[in-house]
Design a protein that fits this description.
Elements lengths: L15 E7 L2 E8 L2 H6 L6 H5 L1 H9 L2 E6 L3 H15 L2 H4 L8 E6 L6 E5 L3 E2 L4 E2 L5 E8 L2 H14 L13 H13 L15 H15 L3 H17 L3 H16 L3 H8 L10 E10 L2 E11 L2 E2 L5 E4 L8 H13 L9 E5 L2 H13 L6 E6 L5 E5 L8 H25 L7
Parallel strand pairs: 9-13, 13-14
Antiparallel strand pairs: 1-2, 1-3, 4-5, 4-8, 6-7, 9-10, 10-11, 10-12, 14-15
Helix pairs in contact: 9-10, 11-14, 12-13
């Protein structure tokens, strides 16, 4: 397969999983923050240096690409593992076996836990761990242990579960101490206020949701939650309905930037060393606007270089005027390192305004823009390639700016506008 063959597959700029195939045979499965950007990276000139001869051979043999979009990178992670388990693609597993990979396991216990186990510690025939722990379900293999652990932490925020090394018993001193500990750290926040009591039925329902998610059945899980929410509202169990609504919202809005960052670090070496500045603004009910500047260098946030600005001249809710102001104030600091590219939050008008401001100030820095949908998820990335950065670079930088903007927004609301003046 050659780069010019990509146009046949209409790869979208959304998260998902992709499959390199030869006929019906699946050669390789991967996940992506941006399907279009990630798959195109397999046709870079220095692929053999960055990914190795095994991947080059796979791309050469492939004659088609299939893909499945997912709502989030987190769902792409679990879907990738499910497809690797289903197809056992040679380019994913060549030179490896089940003992090398990591798996997510659910224990067969009265109070199940979710554990991360290496294949060498699992008896796949009997579904037992090396310590004789019985296992109810196994999910994987997961190519990246770091991403598996990051993904489980994100899932745990939506559907709280136990992941302790020791079993959680239903009675006794250890149980009470464990319940109290988990309630204090909000690991399982819906525990009752008094230690020693445990709603096993509720926890089993939660674990069923965890199982569906880890199996890559996000669509089925959403349908199930919507039915639960409607039934609870009809029966006037409004607290249950509200909780389920929060779970549905979290599935679509979970901040999986940590997974974006991990993928970002796998990018080809020729993209290393890039310094990107990203800008975002926030308003407190249309007043007291603030703007932020964040920096990402070589895929890693440089937090010492973050800055927050109190908007002085722009009228309320005028994002473009606010953007121009913070750019001019940033450019008034020649002691700050200049970026290779700038990423702004917004559409073409925001991009053009930033470019005009830079030109007027005598700077030639390319600008990319990240357009959001009505759920504030990236819908379109404008100008990333012409700015010399990948769309993954742009999305990650924008996500970091938005996160920092929200953090300063909350701080301003609770403590007043105590921002670093620049």
């Amino acid at each position: 397969m050659q780069r010019n063959d990509l146009v046949k597959f209409y790869l979208p700029d959304v998260p998902g999983v992709y499959l390199f195939k030869r006929g019906r045979k699946v050669l390789y499965v991967g996940k992506a923050t941006s399907l279009r950007d990630r798959v195109s990276s397999y046709f870079d000139d220095d692929l053999i240096a960055t990914r190795g001869p095994r991947i080059v051979d796979m791309v050469t043999k492939a004659d088609r690409i299939a893909y499945e979009p997912t709502p989030t990178v987190l769902e792409a992670l679990v879907r990738e593992a499910a497809l690797i388990r289903q197809y056992r693609p040679p380019a994913n597993s060549e030179g490896k076996d089940d003992k090398t990979f990591l798996y997510a396991a659910i224990t067969r216990e009265a109070i199940p836990r979710v554990l991360v186990l290496r294949g060498k510690d699992i008896d796949f025939k009997t579904k037992h761990a090396r310590d004789e722990q019985k296992l109810k379900a196994l999910y994987g293999p997961f190519p990246s242990g770091a991403q598996l652990r990051a993904g489980l932490r994100l899932i745990q925020r939506i559907f709280p579960f136990f992941d302790t090394a020791r079993p959680v018993t239903a009675h006794g001193k250890h149980h009470r101490a464990q319940m109290e500990f988990n309630r204090q750290i909000k690991q399982y926040p819906r525990l009752p206020a008094h230690a020693g009591a445990f709603d096993a039925k509720s926890y089993r329902r939660t674990m069923r949701k965890v199982e569906l998610f880890l199996a890559g059945r996000g669509k089925y899980l959403r349908n199930m939650l919507e039915k639960e929410m409607r039934a609870a509202a009809k029966e006037e169990r409004f607290e249950d309905a509200a909780r389920t609504r929060r779970e549905l919202f979290a599935l679509d809005h979970i901040q999986d930037v940590s997974l974006v960052k991990d993928e970002h670090r796998e990018r080809p070496e020729h993209l290393a060393g890039i310094r990107i500045e990203a800008y975002d603004t926030a308003h407190l009910s249309g007043t007291n606007a603030i703007g932020v500047l964040t920096v990402v260098e070589d895929g890693v946030p440089v937090k010492r270089d973050y800055r927050a600005f109190r908007i002085r001249g722009a009228t309320k809710n005028d994002d473009i005027a606010s953007l121009k102001e913070i750019l001019l104030r940033r450019l008034a600091h020649p002691e700050w390192s200049l970026p290779k590219a700038i990423v702004v939050d917004g559409g073409r008008p925001h991009k053009k305004a930033a470019e005009h401001t830079l030109r007027e100030a005598g700077f030639s820095i390319p600008v990319a823009a990240v357009v959001k949908d009505d759920r504030h998820r990236p819908r379109e990335i404008i100008g990333a390639r012409s700015a010399g950065i990948s769309e993954t670079d742009a999305v990650f930088a924008n996500s970091e700016a938005h996160r920092f903007s929200l953090a300063r927004h909350r701080a301003a609301r609770s403590r007043g506008m105590r921002l670093k003046r620049v």
